[in-house]
Amino acid sequence: MTDSEITRDVVIIGAGAAGLTAANELKKAGLSVAVLEARDRVGGRLWTDVVDGAMLEIGGQWVSPDQEALKETLEELGLETYSRYREGDSVYINADGELTRFTGEIFPVPPETEKEMVRLIEKLDEMVAEIDPDAPWAHPDAEALDRISFEAWLEEQTDDQEVRDNIALFIAGAMLTKPAYAFSALQALLMAASAGSFSHLVDADYILDERVVGGLQQVPLLLAERLTEDIFLGHPVHTVETTDDGVSVISDGGMTVHARYVILAHAPILYPWIDFNPPLPRLKQQLHQHISMGFVIKVHAVYDRPFWREQGLSGTAFSPYEISHEAYDNTNFGDERGTLVGFVSDRNADDLFRVSAEERKTRILESLSHYYGPEALKPIVYFESDWGAEEWTRGAYAASFDLGGLYRYGADLRTPVGRIHFACSDMAGAGYQHVDGAIRMGRFVAASIIEEARA
Question: Mean pLDDT, to the nearest integer, of 322-340?
Fold first, then answer.
């Protein structure tokens, strides 16, 4: 054996929250592990960095009350949280460009539109209550719901365009980051069920409740500290060979790990970058052709002070008609400066990547100024998180199925292939596409391997 050839019980590909959670659980059970990570850092889609002197949450950042697995992990790691700033009025811009200040969850729309929005949210809550987030394909109407786009389903429910635009915003723009015609009604219901209800997605004070002091990437960083000698950065995996006796995983970094089991703990759209020998079963290969990542630009704008608070604004802003469809006060704990975070998704993001970086910045800041006024045009720090450009992610926030794919293949998404196991937030039920789901999947796959290893 050489230094570049090692043997472990389990080899984990990917040092994000799922992979590091699994590695820690396996070590607690007495199994040896090796974690191979393509990047030069741990964390995956969690990344807290300093840009031009400002700490920015480039990746995931929020904690909501239903995310029990994440909250347990935060407590175990001794991490503190603080509430997102929400004092004052929110703002909404309608299709005519008119800005209205408001409080509460429902946008300030005409009375009949508000009535329709409430009715539709209640109907979606009733439907979501019937969906098992771990098995949405088991719903009696799952096939029919998966054959119709969410946009078409909304058109069947109401003639009010503003209702359809706003209801779609909570799923399409804010979560799946795909146009509402690109995913099914069943996929939309899964997204809502993973958060407990559709109402939770509507309520920004719930779904975006807290942040972690110092940044959410501390979760994988602290988990990694327990695995110092078992983590190998800069090792993109290119080959996974399996036999009846075990697996061999080979990286571009020149390392070969022989193990009893392997966990793929990264975005499933990256599987084609790995040469599986023997190949994955035909069903798995077909499945992975029917899932894709969304597309969103997360915009960070830092100012010398949170000037919007002086206007009595909370910083929370929404409009399905703006380039930045939502924005929030993202000021760091104890920071005198003010930070806004805005989001540009799906078709708007497509359009902005057809222009220069300078033009893109101008258009985004102009959109933010529609919410907050002309002071928003001149941040002292400006940064765009573009996860589509990240080689080892290639999109955001997570993968979702195309029309018909969830019913057709969803039950096979998490199924192991012999000694190959799969775990990431993209395939979670509860906590889907959040770090909470990644932790749940890490625990789940570790428990499965521990049980199998002891059998």
Answer: 97
Mean pLDDT (whole number) for 157-171: 98
- Asked whether 248 and 6 are in contact (CB, 8 A), the reply is no
- In Å, how far are 10, 251, 270, 443 from 273, measured between CA atoms? 21, 11, 6, 25
Residue span of the structural domain in which 129 resides: 108-195
Same domain, 221 and 165: no
Are 99 and 92 in contact, with CB atoms under 8 Å apart? yes
Rounded-to-integer distance, Cα 270 and Cα 244, Å:
25
Question: How many residues in total does the chain contain?
Answer: 455
Q: Is residue 440 part of a domain?
A: yes
Instruction: Please state whether 283 falls in left (phi above 0), alpha (psi between -120 and 50) or beta.
Output: alpha
In a domain, 17, yes or no: yes
- Can you tell me which residue has the tokens 């894709």? 292
Calculate the CA dihedral of residues 397, 222, 195, 348 and round it to 10 degrees: -20
Give residue-wise pLDDT tens across range 26-61.
999 999 999 999 999 999 999 999 999 999 999 999
| 3-state secondary structure (DSSP) of residue 333 | coil
Please list the residues that pair with 258 across neighbouring strands.
7, 248
Same domain assignment for residues 162 and 310:
no
User: Does residue 189 contact residue 160 with C-beta atoms inside 8 Å?
Assistant: no
Q: State the residue for tokens 């009696």.
A: 140
Those residues whose C-beta lies under 8 Å from the C-beta of residue 408, and which sit 6 or more positions away, are: 146, 290
Pairing of strands 313-318, 326-329: antiparallel
pTM of the model: 0.97
The one-letter code for the residue type at 416 is: P
Q: pLDDT at position 2, please?
A: 43
Residues 329 and 315 in one domain: yes
210-212/81-83 β-pairing: antiparallel
